[in-house]
């Protein structure tokens, strides 16, 4: 019996927009029945204009120091909680800075003995997609409209997957955050998404079925059923991600991720172990705990 999440474990100790200490997050994961829990703190940023709101007091050097402290603490906890939970230590990438992000992310991955990385795109040309509806609308207007933004985003994810080859591809359709209820991608955008899925399949990447939008009132889990069904048809594997940012969100909504996986026709979910790499958990071996 297994229960797991690999995108999340952000903590207020190392992330200005999260809450709780990393130890509290890990101990909450244990209390909520997780057998495997991935820690994927945000990578540092390398230009002042790429700081998240609330990080201004840290600056570039402060972010780098916080990330280094995160990695040390995560590995210490992985050892300290052996027997209670299997912790996997990784980080969540950015395509920042727009010039040189691949070298920055590859360098970071090589600098520590990470178990995995979560590949994310949160920006187009240094402008955030998911920070506010106003910023996203302005970005879409500058690119030629919502469809143009969606295509630019999925093309960026394709490039990220083909070059960085992350173990997990995060919140695949993040670009539909803030769209109204019932939103579906057009046939034209779906052709671009097919290219992205083909890149994920070719790289052996695993999709993060991420419950944060459901929990935060931004529609169904990522990705939408129309995308998840295409992924299933292409035999792309999936895993669970709670995108937790403190103890309040550890595991919350993952039952919705699991329901979406079942509805898309999957019969198993992938989970990462340190000893054996990726394994497949048949649906009946998953034990979601009430949170
Ligand atoms: Zn975050
Ligand atoms: Zn993210």
The average pLDDT is 97
| Spans where pLDDT lies below 50 across 5 or more residues | none
Reported for the largest beta sheet, the result is: 7 strands, parallel
Work out the radius of gyration. Answer: 18 Å
Number of DSSP helical runs: 9
- CATH top level? Alpha Beta
CATH architecture: Alpha-Beta Barrel
Number of domains: 1
Strand order of the largest sheet: 1-2-3-4-7-8-9
What pattern of helices and strands is seen along the backbone? EHEHEHEEEHHEHEHHEHEE
Helical residues, percent: 25-40%
Give me the CATH superfamily. Answer: Metal-dependent hydrolases
* CATH fold call: TIM Barrel
Structural class: alpha/beta
List the keywords:
TIM Barrel; 291 residues; seven-stranded parallel β-sheet; Pol/histidinol_Pase-like; Histidinol_P_phosphatase_HisJ; binds zinc ion; alpha/beta; two-stranded antiparallel ribbon; 9 helices; globular
Explain briefly what this protein structure is:
With 291 residues, the protein is an alpha/beta fold.
Architecture overview:
The protein is of the alpha/beta class and 291 residues long. It has a single domain (4-285), classed as TIM Barrel. The chain contains 9 helices and 11 strands. It has helices at residues 22-31, 59-80, 101-111, 133-143, 146-164, 187-203, 212-216, 225-233, 254-263, and strands at residues 4-5, 36-42, 86-92, 116-119, 123-124, 127-128, 168-169, 206-210, 238-241, 268-273, 277-282. It has a 7-stranded parallel β-sheet. Helix 4 (133-143) packs across helix 5 (146-164) and helix 5 (146-164) runs parallel beside helix 6. It is globular. The two termini are 18 Å apart. The model has no long low-confidence stretch (mean pLDDT 97). Bound molecules: zinc ion (2 copies). One zinc ion binds next to loops. It is an enzyme of class 3 (hydrolase). Keywords: Amino-acid biosynthesis, Histidine biosynthesis, Hydrolase. This is Histidinol-phosphatase. InterPro entries: Histidinol_P_phosphatase_HisJ, PHP_dom, Pol/histidinol_Pase-like. One of its GO terms (molecular function) is histidinol-phosphatase activity.
């Amino acid at each position: 019996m297994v229960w797991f999440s690999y995108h999340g474990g952000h903590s207020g100790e190392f992330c200005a927009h999260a809450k709780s200490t990393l130890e509290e997050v890990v101990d909450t994961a244990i209390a909520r029945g997780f057998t495997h829990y991935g820690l994927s703190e945000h990578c540092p940023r390398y230009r002042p204009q790429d700081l998240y709101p609330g990080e201004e007091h840290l600056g570039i050097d402060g972010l780098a120091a916080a990330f280094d402290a995160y990695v040390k603490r995560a590995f210490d906890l992985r050892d300290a909680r052996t027997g209670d939970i299997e912790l996997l230590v990784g980080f969540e990438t950015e395509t920042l800075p727009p010039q040189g992000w691949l070298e920055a992310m590859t360098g970071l991955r090589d600098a520590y003995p990470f178990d995995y990385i979560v590949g994310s795109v949160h920006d187009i040309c240094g402008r955030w997609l998911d920070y506010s509806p106003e910023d996203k609308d302005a970005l879409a207007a500058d690119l030629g409209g919502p469809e143009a933004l969606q295509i630019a985003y999925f093309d960026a994810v394709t490039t990220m997957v083909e070059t960085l080859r992350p173990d997990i591809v995060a919140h695949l359709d993040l670009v539909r955050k803030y769209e109204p209820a019932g939103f579906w991608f057009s046939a034209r955008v779906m052709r671009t998404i097919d290219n992205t899925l083909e890149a994920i399949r070719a790289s052996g990447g695993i999709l993060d079925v991420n419950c944060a939008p459901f929990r935060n009132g931004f529609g169904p889990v990522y990705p939408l059923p129309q995308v998840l069904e295409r992924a299933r048809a292409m035999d792309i594997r999936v895993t669970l991600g709670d995108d937790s940012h403190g103890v309040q969100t550890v595991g919350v909504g993952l039952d919705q991720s699991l329901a979406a996986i079942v509805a898309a026709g999957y019969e198993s979910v992938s989970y990462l172990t340190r000893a054996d790499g990726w394994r497949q958990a048949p649906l009946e071996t998953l034990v979601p705990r009430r949170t």
